[in-house]
Amino acid sequence: MNPLSRFLVELQDITFLFWRMLRGLRKQPRYFDEMVRHMDSIGVGSLAIVSLTGFFTGCVLILQAYPTLEYYGAQSSAGQSVAITLIRELGPVLCALMVAGRVGSAISAELGSMVVSQQIDAMRALGTSPARKLVTPRVIALVVTLPLLTVAADIFGLVGGGVIARYLYGLDANSYITSLRNGITIQDIIGGIIKPIVFGFIIGLISCHKGLTTQGGTVGVGKSTTDAVVLSSITVIIADFFLSKVLQGFFGNTLF
Amino acid sequence: MFQTETEIEPTIRRAILPVVPAIEFRDVDLAFDDKVILDGISFTVRRGETKIVLGGSGSGKSTIIKLILGLLQPDAGTILVDGEDITQCDEQELTEIRKKIGMVFQEGALFDSLSVYDNVAYRLAEEGIDEDEIEHEVIRMLRFVDLEDAIDKMPIELSGGMRRRVGIARALVGSPSIVLFDEPTAGLDPPTARTMCELAIKLRDLEGVSSIFVTHEMNNLKYLSSEYAIVDGEGRVFFEEEGDKLCLINTKVMMIKQGNIIFDGTDEELQISSDPYIHRFISGR
Ligand SMILES: Nc1ncnc2c1ncn2[C@@H]1O[C@H](COP(=O)(O)OP(=O)(O)OP(=O)(O)O)[C@@H](O)[C@H]1O
Ligand SMILES: [Mg+2]
After folding, report:
1. C-beta neighbour count of A122 within 10 angstroms
2. Which of the residues A33, A115, A126 would you substitute to probe the B interface, choosing the one with the greatest number of B C-beta atoms within 10 Å?
3. Which domain holds residue A166?
């Protein structure tokens, strides 16, 4: 099969998976407990790495931007510059990449080894749909927790930026906070929440699909795990561009 | 009022036509990539019948079992389970059909994130049956396979044979009317293997279960095709050998070689078969 038709086949499979998942939501049993368990492991489990990522991203943003701002005499916009970059772009994208690495790999490895040890077959033989039992709870958990994690990353990033601005460059804390509050619009925040919701779907569906289509024993599990992380990371970054474009279309290009 | 057979509801049809076989294969073909695995296989398993499937490693025995459950789709041909053509079913209809089939996987295929209790309880829990009833049934099944002590263990803590027995308990929970055993005695010590055969005999003679029993071991063939279970007045189960006055008719043997059925009949016919391959297979030489 050439790469294009392989891509189309995968896209079709993922769409079917999405469809089966949505249908699974309508029907009993809903596996609510599973969902909560996954939210705990995905959400609470990723909080530390996501916060750390956010914090240092905020730090480095101000570290790099401040000298330029100072050159143009625009130090008072420091808070705004960090806030917009973080909330619109870096928060959602970095958070999604971290989660793709940590959770996407775990999902596809787990489902992959279930395929290899025939547990998926056993599950189907016992009358359960793997799409409903395994995919739906994971994807929903990701869609719910990723926006929350993104908000956490954003907040830690803003704090990080503030710390560097205050202690490295001696900017007045009040001036930083004022600039933050004037700089962020409600559109930024809405956009910054919509993105991780979409990214949650992307990571969840791709990882589950890769896991469930694992072939060829233990080596296959390794391969599908790698594929899941690579493919979901790339898709997140590509989707981010198009989402930004769409959001700009909706909210207008509100820059500075 | 006249109705043709196809117009009658499947459930009604089952009641009025008890001759519908439990499992029927009609000219089933299957190939993985270019490799032909099953080449026009046809056979039936009648209601209440046990079909012992023999065949060398890689001859396609597990594949047949997976086809019955709809875990694989054939390239051509028809597979009927209780008179319903499962090759035409979607995943949801298959789920309904699978509810009446119990499957013992060759490698156990236990859910390794669930305890023994939850593994055995899986099917009942999925159906939303209440906890007391589930517990009662799980304990009964585990006692059946002699694993009551392992109830709280995780699969990883069990030996291979114990895992196999948990797999059997999991398959039999909920009293399915069709049971598929894929080498249930491989890797078990002789007394436990014997217990597994007795279990299959009991299901056949006392519960009227139809089953497919894949095995390599001639002992199993001997037990299953020559002994039957009876219950005395006090509910005790006995096993007796068939003799002159009684000959078992509900156990058949089928042998597969390279994707073809080379033998299908009773064990007596198998023993006197002149085919050199069959002779080598049953005598080991
Ligand atoms: N997923 C698959 N992809 C490709 N070939 C497969 C696949 N599954 C099984 N086969 C092939 O199909 C053939 C039949 O396999 P099957 O598992 O049915 O054998 P078996 O009769 O159960 O053997 P055993 O007694 O060793 O369990 C084998 O030659 C195997 O190589
Ligand atoms: Mg096999």
Report:
1. 25
2. A126
3. 36-251
Give the pLDDT confidence of A77-103 residue by residue, as tens digits: 888 888 988 999 999 999 999 999 999
Peptide bond into A29 cis (omega under 30): yes
Task: Tell me which residues of chain A, numbers 166 to 205, contact chain B at a CB-CB cutoff of 8 Å.
Answer: none
Look up residue A56 and give its amino acid. F
Structure ipTM: 0.82
| pTM tops 0.90 | no
Does residue A25 lie within any of the structural domains? no
Residue ranges and CATH numbers for the domains of chain B are 5-100+179-283 (3.40.50.300), 112-175 (no CATH)
Q: What pLDDT, in 10s, does the model give residues A163-197?
A: 999 999 888 888 889 988 888 888 888 999 999 99
Number of domains within chain A? 1
Written as six digits, the tokens of A231 are 């493919």
H or E, element range at B228: strand B227-231
Minimal Cβ distance to B99: which of A121, A122, A127:
A127
Domain presence at residue A8: no
For residue B132, give the amino acid letter. Answer: D
Ligand 1 mutation target, pool B37, B66, B183, most atoms within 8 A of CB = B37
Question: How many beta carbons lie within 10 A of that of residue B233, not counting itself?
Answer: 5
Q: Which two tokens stand for residue B152?
A: 């709280």
> What are the structure tokens assigned to A80, written together?
């705004």
Measured CA to CA, the distance from residue A43 to residue A45 in angstroms comes to 5
Task: Count Cα neighbours of A5 within 13 Å in the Cβ-side half-sphere.
Answer: 2
- Domain membership of residue A231 (yes or no) is yes
